[in-house]
Design brief:
Blueprint (H helix, E strand, L loop, with lengths): L3 E8 L6 H11 L3 E12 L4 E6 L2 H14 L4 E4 L5 H12 L6 E3 L16 H9 L5 E2 L3 H8 L4 H9 L5 E4 L8 E8 L3 E7 L8 H14 L4 H17 L16
Parallel strand pairs: 1-2, 1-4, 4-5, 5-6
Antiparallel strand pairs: 2-3, 7-8, 8-9
Bound molecules: pyridoxal-5'-phosphate (PLP).
Pyridoxal-5'-phosphate binds next to strand 1, strand 2 and helix 7.
Amino acid sequence: MKPNILVIAGHDPSGGAGIHADIEAIHSLGGLAATLITGLTIQNSQNVRGFELVDLNLLERQAETLLEDMQFSAVKIGMTGSPAIIRFIARLLDQLPGVPVILDPVLAAEAGGSLGEQSVPEALLGELFPRAMLATPNLPEAERLAGASGVVGAGETLLRHGCPNVLITGTHDDTDAVLNHLFSENQVRDWSWPRLAGSFHGSGCTLASACAALIARGLPLEQALTDSQGYVYRALQNAWQAGRGQLIPDRRG
Ligand code: PLP
């Protein structure tokens, strides 16, 4: 059986990040991505020029229609866009008790450019961190959410917001290797990956979706994290120059 994964995220017309990345990663790892699209962005592989959020009533009707029909083995959340959409997602998650929630707390694109309203960080911390089993911020997102600088300060602060596992990714750092740190209630675990040359569009989306697919398939958390990082590493190794900006990961697996 292919597991169904409910993806709640934004659309990137370049095909590199957002919902395209989610669908490709989940499909490649053997799941079905059912999608609620929170917002439509205006961007290419070079930069983000803006976004429009989807009408809340439409999202509510889509969610209600999906939930009448399908059962989900995991939920993956990416770009949320506004506190109102975040509150809608929180209500939706309350209708899916026991379903693991993987939260990629998207605030901005890797190349810069906001992907949400000003008060999104506060709403994410209050509404979605407590409902998620895993959050996957990159270091700049983690620091902004936590209001703390440095990976340890940010990780420890985020753990106090009720999500039991926080993976802070080091793709945006300037260390030689990419260091990803998992903060959990009783431990910290690190993974180190050789830093690949170039800048990539949608690496965070790909990682969170890969984790969601593997968790939906029943892998234990640490195994899902190790395997999904390996999957992303291969996708980035094979990334190609589709436009003039960031490279697009090859998510065929
Ligand atoms: N979600 C959407 C809709 C985006 O457009 C982007 C970046 O452009 C992201 C999420 C985050 O992308 P990344 O995985 O590069 O952090």
